[in-house]
Design goal:
By secondary structure, the protein is mainly α. The protein has helices spanning 3-8, 11-35, 44-69, 73-90, 95-123. Helix content is 83%, strand content 0%. The N and C termini lie close together (10 Å).
Amino acid sequence: MGKSKQNLSWLGSATSLLAVATCYGTLAAVSLLSLIGVSVDIDEATLITLITGLLIVALSGMLYSWRSHRHPGPLILSLGAAALLLWVFYGRYSKALELTGFALLVMASLWDFRAKRRVCTTSCDD
């Protein structure tokens, strides 16, 4: 993998993980604040829009990463996870499906990191 491709190949995996952190990190922060008596009202529509934007960036990054390592698995898994999450956000909500979608997104990110590492160990000797 060339130096310029390697510089942005982390984008898909990192943004996928950021989408998960945005959703559950925000919920955790609000929960912790409520434990100490601070009430915070989160606009759910804004949070969903932010996570949707992160999913789009993550999918773009996964596509870019796929072009570097040519292993389709992480891209396909992240597409499925994003489709499931979009269904949950804009179709019929299900906590189980939301958790499944985010878990699949994390798995796709980890798989993508491994695929990049595998390619880099064989061709990143410069």
